């Protein structure tokens, strides 16, 4: 059962990732990207990590994919994309990807992660929280600082002198 | 003599009825029964009266009342029944349908109108059925330049997502379709799909009104999702769990609305915005942009979207009840099942029928469902009420409300909840349990 679900999820994730890269229509491409991200959430569910799976769904599908969709719908295609049709680039990309996957696979297998424990209990989200606040607290602080800096940066970029409001008040 | 069917003859009508019955019985016994028996061999059968039910005995429940009720009882506890009927789709769709009718009458009474009146003689009670039949029988029109796959799939996805949301709401103790440990996060993940579906169907219809409506829906839902999530954090802090059943269980003595009133208010406003109801109904503002992102839908596609909207309304009201109003908790008002019927059986004249497995539902579940439904209907009426009272607000006011005021208000109650927790008043191991 789990094997069948795993295979189905793999086909869905990789297939929709390829579709997201290859399809002409940008909207369908972003929908395929959503499917890929949902498939990854499915992998997290299979790995007994519902907490991460739900965050994957609500953050990646619910927010980031929506932003991509939004951008694609509002911006004219010719302005952002410069089409370069080149067969050799595509083959080079596929070769690079295969080399990268093989390398990572070799590293993982070489590091001794050959067996997996399948019947361990699901990760408790309270444990994740307490770990974050104790052992990983420097990482948490650094993440918070990065996020705060990026929010401040976004606000600075988005700020503009709004003339229309004054006119309306008059 | 009927004017609708001048050739009508009662004898022919009755004859055709018998004809249909004959063919149904013939086809069922020749084709249906073998298929049923083949399927029964692959289904896990329940244990009835300490005896395993085999496919050979499966049909005996029709004639044997001592088997009927245990079989129904075991069926009630299957996942299929949970999904289709009671805490799942059937129950929610029934409440949603009732909501549509009640909304029309309720708003009419507020605005001194009469509302639906003629259909079904008594206060237009059959209006809903008539509307449903009309929607089913209408032609489905697809715009010529629409993006057909997305346009077709949109309403189905909308109803599906609303159904997934409904499945997370616990109705009574142990009566919930899906009970994940991260139930509240699952709710957030589910409601994140609604803006995507709105904006995709709006884009697919290839119409300026739908597209404007879809963009408005996207803006509005994303703006109100963050205060919605933040407003629920105080309840999570106070209970220490994300499981909705446990959150409802933790409110046996007091409701969380007592300690998190600001959260409840913020959450309620966010509900109205997420449901696109007046005063936040900009995505389907009918006097500005025809019907917003629903403009091009016709027939049953519109019906499906409408069903999804009201399922979502029920689910949000149920979520409010579970989080802030104590869920199924309430004083035991449901009368217990008469014990002498269980022990002695029912006596009608000379015959005494002793029926096995009689209390079909236990008292606790019926009482819990009663309280849940009462509270949910109250919340639904509160959600409907602004439609009769308020005008629609401008989009910049809406976004300002969502991004500035509600987020700030939500944080206030988070700090109150943290204070109560660290002072040792509430929460796990607190003074008040």
Mean of all residue-level pLDDT scores of chain A:
82
Please report the total strand number of chain A as a whole number: 0
Which H/E pattern describes the elements of chain A?
Answer: HHHHHHHH
**In the residues of chain A, how many domains can be counted?**
2
3D architecture notes:
- The complex is a heterodimer of chains A (170) and B (433).
- Chain A is an all-alpha fold and 170 residues long.
- Chain A is 78% helix and 0% strand.
- Chain A has helices at 2-22, 26-46, 50-74, 77-80, 87-110, 125-133, 137-158, 164-169.
- The N and C termini of chain A lie far apart (69 Å).
- By secondary structure, chain B is mainly α.
- Helix content of chain B is 61%, strand content 2%.
- Chain B has helices spanning 10-40, 65-76, 79-84, 89-110, 127-137, 148-166, 183-191, 193-204, 208-239, 244-249, 256-259, 261-274, 299-324, 339-344, 363-389, 395-422, and strands at residues 47-48, 51-52, 346-348, 351-353.
- In chain B, the strands form 2 sheets. Chain B has a two-stranded antiparallel sheet with strand order 1-2. A two-stranded antiparallel ribbon of chain B has the order 3-4.
- The longest helix of chain B is centred in the middle third of the chain and has 32 residues, at 208-239.
- The radius of gyration of chain B is 26 Å and the shape is globular.
- The model of chain B has no long low-confidence stretch (mean pLDDT 84).
- The chains are: A mainly alpha (170), B mainly alpha (433).
- The A-B interface holds A 27, 31, 34, 50-51, 54-55, 57-58, 61-63, 65-66, 69-70, 73, 122, 125-126 and B 147, 150, 180-182, 185-186, 188-189, 191-193, 195-196, 199-200, 203, 215, 218, 222, 225, 240, 242.
